[in-house]
TrEMBL record:
<feature type="binding site">
    <location>
        <position position="113"/>
    </location>
    <ligand>
        <name>S-adenosyl-L-methionine</name>
    </ligand>
</feature>
<dbReference type="GO" id="GO:0032259">
    <property type="term" value="P:methylation"/>
</dbReference>
<comment type="similarity">
    <text>Belongs to the RNA methyltransferase TrmD family.</text>
</comment>
<keyword id="KW-0819">tRNA processing</keyword>
<dbReference type="Pfam" id="PF01746">
    <property type="entry name" value="tRNA_m1G_MT"/>
</dbReference>
<comment type="subunit">
    <text>Homodimer.</text>
</comment>
<keyword id="KW-0963">Cytoplasm</keyword>
<keyword id="KW-0808">Transferase</keyword>
<keyword id="KW-0949">S-adenosyl-L-methionine</keyword>
<feature type="domain" description="tRNA methyltransferase TRMD/TRM10-type">
    <location>
        <begin position="1"/>
        <end position="228"/>
    </location>
</feature>
<comment type="function">
    <text>Specifically methylates guanosine-37 in various tRNAs.</text>
</comment>
<keyword id="KW-0489">Methyltransferase</keyword>
<dbReference type="InterPro" id="IPR002649">
    <property type="entry name" value="tRNA_m1G_MeTrfase_TrmD"/>
</dbReference>
<dbReference type="InterPro" id="IPR029026">
    <property type="entry name" value="tRNA_m1G_MTases_N"/>
</dbReference>
<protein>
    <recommendedName>
        <fullName>tRNA (guanine-N(1)-)-methyltransferase</fullName>
        <ecNumber>2.1.1.228</ecNumber>
    </recommendedName>
</protein>
<dbReference type="InterPro" id="IPR016009">
    <property type="entry name" value="tRNA_MeTrfase_TRMD/TRM10"/>
</dbReference>
<dbReference type="GO" id="GO:0008168">
    <property type="term" value="F:methyltransferase activity"/>
</dbReference>
Length: 235
């Protein structure tokens, strides 16, 4: 998978050189290029924003630098249309299902907005040469798209085959089967007077699986009843 990121804070993504994604980059499983939007400006102050037409507070990101930055990234694309994702609170909500879907894309481009957002014509023009999706992490407002892109790249990258050593560990996780995950325990069997649930020490794999499923249902019902299938309140 090839990932390109456009941002005015390129060093923000140095963190992607760490841990699993760093290994994936070194192994070539994931190719990551970060582009500084200001490299696509030509004035002395490397200006990327201006006042909004129609008035209002804040500044809007100018279309020209974005057009030029994306020319450089999309221009060389011969194979299928890449997918360009702009993080936005006005976007469709990012979910594990979307992460799984995006993990199959050969190429992803992320455009990090700042300020009050990006001139809307950038989305319209980009849609003439690529697939464009506005995606939101959730119903709150961040100062820009970088944090959202970091989260999405982590959620997507770990699903790319080969990135996570043991694919089994991807299966029993919250949201993977639509429910929250069961509680986990490790040694010691008792810690500060708190025992590990005895069923987990029983060696009875059937009973353990049943207990874990019940825990998932109870946790989901308590914390995220919206995730329980409507027709199966007891999942
Ligand atoms: N919630 C957000 N706020 C600002 C920029 C991006 C956002 N997001 O969720 O992708």
């Amino acid at each position: 998978m090839r990932i390109d990121i456009v941002t005015i804070f390129p060093t923000f993504f140095d963190a992607l050189d760490l841990s699993l994604l760093g290994k994936a980059k070194q192994s070539g499983l994931i190719e990551l290029d970060v582009h500084d939007l200001r490299d696509s400006t030509h004035d002395r102050h490397r200006t990327v924003d201006d006042t909004p037409y129609g008035g209002g507070a804040g500044m809007v990101m100018k279309p020209e630098p974005w057009g030029e930055a994306l020319d450089g990234i999309l221009g060389d694309d011969t194979e299928e249309e890449p997918l360009v994702i702009f993080p936005s609170p006005a976007g469709e909500v990012f979910t594990q299902a979307m992460a799984r879907e995006l993990a199959t894309e050969p190429r992803l481009v992320f455009g990090c907005g700042r300020y009050e957002g990006i001139d809307h014509r950038v989305f319209d023009h980009t849609a003439s040469r690529a697939r464009v999706r506005l995606v939101s992490l959730g119903d709150y407002v961040l100062n820009g798209g970088e944090v959202a892109v970091m989260a999405m790249i982590e959620a997507i990258g770990r699903l790319v085959p080969g990135v996570v050593g043991n694919p089994e560990s991807l299966v029993e996780e919250s949201h993977e089967d639509g429910l929250l995950e069961y509680p986990s325990y490790t040694k010691p069997a008792e810690w500060r007077g708190l025992p590990v649930p005895p069923v987990l020490l029983s060696g009875n794999h059937g009973a353990i699986a049943t207990w874990r499923r019940q825990q998932q249902i109870e946790r989901t019902r308590e914390v995220r009843p919206d995730l329980l299938p409507a027709d199966q309140p007891d999942a």
